[in-house]
Predict the structure.
Amino acid sequence: MIDQLFEFAGNHLILVSLFLVLLVAFFINEGKQGGAAISPTNLVTLVNREGAVIVDIRDNKEFTNGHIAGAVNMPLSSIESRMAELDPFKEKPVVLVCKMGQHAGSAGRKLKAKGFENVRRLSGGMAEWTGSSLPVVKK
């Protein structure tokens, strides 16, 4: 099976190359539509220098178990109905945080559709934040 795959790739080099280029372009485009990814250290800098708003899109239980100080909990399932709460922050950077970074892109697209221009997402989500030994608040 794998021999056939390599034989196909060797016989159709242009086709396989074009597929790989399109695949990479797709992932780059999807990433940008949901907001640029930022590292935990860049998030700290953005909050301190520009007053960024952190929106945690995890459910209430995960948020209560530990979140970034100052984060607003707005579960992904209710983000569209609660988006008006973020209107005062349209001019500030908005950083979306989820569990591992995979759901923040879809929330970012929703915010951008409502006029939020400076939307970013925490790369790796809370898993990356806690993995970097940064503080969390539990309530």
Notes: Residues 13-33 form the longest helix (21 residues). The helical segments are 2-11, 13-33, 40-50, 60-65, 79-82, 104-113, 125-131.
